[in-house]
Amino acid sequence: MENLKAFALICTLTPSPDESSSDLMASHILGKLKEQGVTTSSARVVDHNVAPGVQIDMGNGDEWPQLRQQILDADIFLLCTPIWVGHMCSLAQRVFERLDADLSSTDDEGRPIMYNRVALTAVVGNEDGAHHVTAEMHQGLNDIGFTVAAQGGVYWVGEAMQTVDFKDLDEVPDPVASTISSMATNAVHLAKSLKVAPYPAP
């Protein structure tokens, strides 16, 4: 079996190369996947011209089609977002709006085009709302056709009304590190299983 590929789409509002908690969280997860032989890559949505809309290609320099192709080329898709005012950030919402076009896209066998891909999520913030955001992301990804791995979401949320971010920590807290390890292991197992036994055609 050829090596699995993972692609992380990071929805930080901070352009590269500035530090980002979402980017740091993604790097920890991708690092664990690399340890299991997975080839990884990532992109920050904010670094690309992703137009608003619900079509695969909105034209006029829209760069979503290139990001979408990287999702299609991957076996494992990781979506990371910060929390702002209790919700996933605007760029994460835009990703879901753009993925909406693929509700009607199918592969060569007539299956939804995102079938047989594993989804993982990561959420960071310094306020409450991680479970709410994770639930929305998992439901949306499942609707689009991704298979969410068991315990496929990880989050870190700092103390409310404080200024410490995930990137400010000296080390990854043990519960977060343990969850990252488990979700990576589960994602690789599931992706390998879907390679051997993909979902049946309708």
Notable traits:
single chain; 202 residues; alpha/beta; Rossmann fold; 6-stranded mixed sheet; 5 helices; 6 strands; 36% helix; globular; Flavoprotein-like_sf; Multimeric flavodoxin WrbA; FMN_Rdtase-like_dom
Written overview of the protein:
There is one protein chain. Helices cover 36% and strands 21% of the residues. The protein has helices at residues 21-35, 64-73, 90-99, 130-144, 174-196; strands spanning 5-10, 39-44, 76-84, 87-88, 118-125, 147-157. Strands 1, 2, 3, 4, 5 and 6 form a six-stranded mixed sheet that branches. The model has no long low-confidence stretch (mean pLDDT 96). With 202 residues, it is α/β, with parallel strands linked by helices. The protein has a single domain (5-196), classed as Rossmann fold (3-Layer(aba) Sandwich). The relative contact order is 0.18. The longest helix has 23 residues, at 174-196.
